[in-house]
Amino acid sequence: MTAKRFERPLDLKNGRIDMTHGSGGRAMAQLIDQLFANAFDNPALAEGNDQARLDAPAGRLAFSTDSFVISPLFFPGGDIGSLAVHGTVNDVAMSGAKPLWLSAGFILEEGFPLSDLKRIIDSMAEAARKCGVSIVTGDTKVVEKGKADGLFISTAGIGVIPSGINLSAKHVQAGDAILISGPLGDHGVAVMAKRENLTFEEEILSDSAPLHDLVAKMIASGTDLHALRDPTRGGLATTLNEIAQSAGVGMRLEEQSIPVRPSVRSVCEILGLDPLYVANEGRLIAFCAGKDAEKLLKSMRAHKHGAEASIIGKVVEDPRAFVEMQTTLGGQRMVDWLTGEQLPRIC
Amino acid sequence: MKYIEEFRDRALAENLAATISKEVQPGRTYRFMEFCGGHTHAIYRFGLPDLLPPEVQMIHGPGCPVCVLPMARIDAAIQLAQMPDVILCSYGDMLRVPGGKRMSLLKAKAHGADVRMVTSPHDAVVLAKETPHKQIIFFAIGFETTTPPTAVVVKQARVWNLKNFSVFCNHVLTPPALQWLLESSANAADGVPPLDGFVGPSHVSAVIGTHPYEIAATRYGKPVVIAGFEPLDVMQSILMLIRQVNAGRAEVENEYTRAVSREGNVKAQELMRDIFELRDTFEWRGLGFIPNSALRLREAYADFDAERRFTLAPSEAKENPACQCPAILRGAKVPTDCKLFGKTCTPENPIGSCMVSSEGGCAAWYSYGRQRKTA
Amino acid sequence: MCLAIPARITKLCDDSMAVADVGGVGRTISLALVDDVAEGDYVIVHVGYALSRLDPEEAEKTLKLFAEMNEAGAREMAAKADLPRRSVAKAGA
User: Fold this and answer.
1) Which numeric CATH code is attached to A169-334?
2) pTM, rounded to two decimals
3) C22 close contact with A: CB closer than 8 A
4) Does residue A263 sit in helix, strand or coil?
């Protein structure tokens, strides 16, 4: 499309989203063309249809969906755009699949600055490029001021599962080893610390990162992998309880082996939070046959997103599906489901 | 983290556990109450019950200001939050606690009330300064640790001549509650074995000093050890209590010498006396009415008292009759004695005071310790 | 009931405020409730206010108390494989 369709370029410096950007008319077409299509730039999107037409790959598909409503939109280590790409890629990758295509729906609040939108779109495009995925289709809507927190992003992701790979919580069984790919709590604390005006000798950055390449290495290690999951909202504790319930097993953890950065620990102490319940955006939990634990650990540590991986516990028979932990002091405690939302406490 | 991690050292914990095991007299039961909810939380979070011999029984006391706040007071806070042009500032701990009709501040927020979480009263008074067209109400809760900061901001509000700032005051006092427990234990009306001693609160004591506890020893013959906040502090304090009991002593001892003195923080005490006065009586959820156990703003600061600035309708909240919190808070029962525990009453759906906060005895047991329940 | 945390004063500011550090993380706090606090001192902080100074000498003494090796206790520890498990006790038992 080389003919000049639009009278004036988008005012990316001072312009704001208004209701015409969602009405389906010229303003919206310009927004899509000059901002989204320009940045995401791939053949399927360039066709300009309501859908992306793609050649069906051979093999089993993995298909996931997610929504991103984070506030603030920009945080140390990322923004809602890069988070959206990494989060979707990871959901797909936890099946062992190679992620291929993403869709992205944007709900924009009237008044949202175009400069912020461009920053976010460019960040998404960059993240997608680095992941080797394409954002092949999308949608835009505008809602009145006050009806969205600046911007909400909704995504879906498709990937292909290599043959012979069958990862599922249902395969987790007694005797399995439990591994984590890196330290807990970076993302949640990075976001919360910004809100609480804490300062750092060494800034805490969100760990938001794509893990599909790490997953591929883990699969290639030839270990008997049973399940993978990324501990996002609700943290490690919530994810382990979900899997324990799904598989009908118990889990026994060693607090000593669970990595947490000292600065993250400090923030958690100050605010009265438990790192086990804080969100992560660039970590995965792996369940493998007990005998393969060391081998899997080695393969993870050889990758940049698994450099601080650790074996944190094991799966046991337990009809109650309790997740328990030996504390650093040698006593036992439950690692229960999260109650409501974890809030800073004074007591 | 200095002065934190050293007090969580495993080798030292094992040493203390061995010493405690050695010094308990076989066949003798030691019933100690840790008054402070923060200590209850620490005990369960670190799994201390596994490091103590079966002769030592820890009873979980009512030192949790969230737990002992009556539902009627929560209803009042919700009423305030729902008034026009009001921003109610609250600590995170209070947001999910249900009042009557299962309404909470968080739910009120979902229904349109402007409820904001703060981590310091300073944030509330600054907000008042920055939003003159709104009424900022600070929901003040807590024992003597949390009261001096409230006093500071009331003074600050006076200096700034703020017309839109008030405090909904629910500050309560430790010594009257302790005395209530001592009386209750001394009477032993329900055939419950008496308490043998108390692990005293860390930071309340940093403010009030150790001398207010001396009555426990002199009048009631019960030992008190003021414990630091870390698990090793709690273990050392239990050891010190065991030694007192074995020797037939009853004294107030201070384990938290790095932060607590006999006279406490006099500056903070004077500020509290300047701003606050005693209420004749106040209801403690689970314990009933205790005289001279709570504070309100003095007449001189009446213009900052939310209860005088706003008209509140009385609440009709009633406790569930099957709730055993009153007995549990006195040490007469344990959570598993309550029919509701773990079934209708869970941290998600708390019925009574012991479950509403993560440091209530029932909540701590449920969230951290229910794997110990015999099948 | 009162989550308070030891922090090191790294900077004194105007209006009785200061910057306090816990494990590399800094926060602005108020010194309105304490007197004669200097940079480098440790204080106990609760809801953004310093409540008392932390005495480093007393802290050392306390740690030493924990470490007092009770000889018989040490022998007992070595003999046991692990520590006794606490069973749930009913009130009045």
Assistant:
1) 3.90.650.10
2) 0.91
3) yes
4) helix
ipTM: 0.93
- CATH superfamily assigned to domain A19-161: PurM-like, N-terminal domain (3.30.1330.10)
Q: A265 to chain C: which residues are within 8 Å by CB?
A: 23
Tens-place pLDDT, residues B112-147: 999 999 999 999 999 999 999 999 999 999 999 999
Nearest CA in chain C to A329: C83
CB contact under 8 Å between A346 and B37, yes or no, is no
Partner-chain residue, chosen from C3, C24, C83, that has the shortest CB–CB distance to A202: C24
Find which of A269, A273, A327, A347 to mutate to test the C interface (most C CBs within 10 Å of its CB): A269
**Which residue of A197, A330, A347 is in closest CB contact with C83?**
A330
- In the chain, the amino acid numbered B371 is Q
Domains of chain B: 71-171+265-307 (3.40.50.11740), 325-366 (no CATH)
> For residue A113, what are the β-bridge partners?
A16
What chain C holds in terms of domains, given with CATH numbers, is 5-54 (2.30.30.140)
Q: What is the mean pLDDT of residues A51-58?
A: 94
Choose the closest CB to B65 out of A196, A271, A347: A347
CB distance C22–A201 less than 8 Å?
no
CA distances from B143 to A150, B283, B294 (A): 40, 14, 9
B334 CB neighbours in chain C (<8 A) are 88-91
> CB-based burial of residue C43 (10 Å sphere; 0-12 exposed, 13-18 middle, 19+ buried)?
buried
Question: Which residues does residue A63 pair with via DSSP β-bridges, in sequence order?
Answer: A158
Shortest CA gap B353–chain A (Å):
15
Residue range(s) in chain A whose domain bears CATH number 3.90.650.10: 169-334
Contact B57, B29 (CB under 8 A): yes
Cα dihedral value A243, A246, A250, A253, nearest 10: 0
For residue B331, what pLDDT band results from cuts at 50, 70 and 90? confident
* Cβ pair A124, A84 in contact under 8 A: yes
Nearest CB to B3: which of C2, C54, C70? C54
Say yes or no for a CB contact (<8 Å) between A198 and C83: no
Taking the CB of residue B302, how many other CB atoms lie within 10 A of it? 13
Considering only CB atoms, which chain B residues are within 8 Å of A340? 96, 106, 348
- Per-residue model confidence as pLDDT tens digits over B213-243: 999 999 999 999 999 999 999 999 999 999 9
